[in-house]
Design goal:
about 290 residues; mainly alpha; about 55% helix
């Protein structure tokens, strides 16, 4: 039974993998790219920027991992119950969690991995081995943005180095002879193959960080959209069901539900709530 549900249990596997990938990338950058760039007289401040980003990223990574995201218990559920109003659609009043035996506050969700109900639950992040909730979302945002900046910075520096190598060698002005003995001008494909054979680890690292940059960049945009509109990933996913015409067609005509995000209060207030989650008393004054 445990083997079939390993993905539903907290594990350090992805956390260790996350750290191993960072060590591998920064090891290659330090071992080869940094030294080559210094020989080509790249600015030292430019080359040290990835290390600064790494230090900031690791700080917020640790904060994400160790900060209580907002675990709801019988002793603190009363304060969480007053934090947000129930919208009557996605979050219903007097709903009990059978596992935690607590009344579920609005915007909360039971995490099957951590086996806890979490206040303003966003998602469970395997990379930090913790839930992302009301009290560590701000750390997660900075962690995510600095991780994206790290990938972008490493990609730009590495690409700049390879371009500099090509320009200094005048390789684009040369030609090569193929297997049939015919001479051809140097093309991008030939150039890429030559660089890969000359700097295999550097080119592989460049490909990896570019893909990482694109994936993280897209996720950053999505996360920023959620923050600006005061939604969580969990709420966004659930709201799709109310907007899906196919899902609505399955409901009786007299039970069609129109969902509206009642928690958005404008961009500035939404962002402020991320970095300073409201207490029950503050939210009560607003309502």
């Amino acid at each position: 039974m445990g083997a079939s549900h390993w993905y539903q249990q907290r594990s350090c596997l992805f956390l260790v993998l996350h750290l191993a990938l960072q060590v591998a990338v920064y090891g290659e950058y330090t071992w080869e790219v940094f030294g080559y760039c210094r020989e080509l007289e790249f600015s030292i401040h430019y080359l040290l920027l990835p290390y600064l980003l790494l230090a900031v990223n690791m700080g917020f990574f640790i904060q994400c991992s160790v900060t209580n995201p907002g675990t709801i218990t019988q002793s603190n559920q009363e304060s969480f119950l007053k934090a947000y109003a129930y919208d009557g659609v996605m979050f219903q009043k007097s709903t009990m969690c059978p596992t935690c035996n607590v009344e579920k506050p609005a915007r909360s969700k039971h995490c099957s991995v951590c086996n806890n109900c979490v206040h303003r639950f966003d998602h469970h992040c395997v990379w930090v081995n913790n839930c992302i909730g009301a009290f560590n979302t701000r750390y997660f945002l900075v962690y995510l943005f600095t991780l994206t900046a790290m990938a972008a910075n490493l990609a730009i520096i590495t690409a700049a180095f390879l371009i500099q190598v090509v320009l200094l060698s005048n390789m684009m002005l040369g030609s090569y002879i193929d297997d049939q003995g015919q001479e051809h001008a140097v093309e991008i494909l030939f150039l890429s193959q030559h660089l890969f054979l000359t700097f295999p680890r550097i080119v592989f690292m460049l490909g990896f960080v570019i893909v990482l940059w694109l994936v993280l960049g897209a996720y950053c945009c999505f996360t920023l959209y959620l923050a600006l509109t005061n939604q969580t990933s969990n709420e966004w996913y659930k709201s799709r069901r109310y907007e899906c015409s196919c899902c609505q067609a399955l409901q009786p005509h007299d039970r069609h539900i129109v969902y509206r995000n009642v928690y958005s209060q404008g961009v500035w207030v939404n962002l402020k709530e991320i970095f300073k989650p409201p207490t029950s008393s503050e939210e009560k004054k607003k309502t």
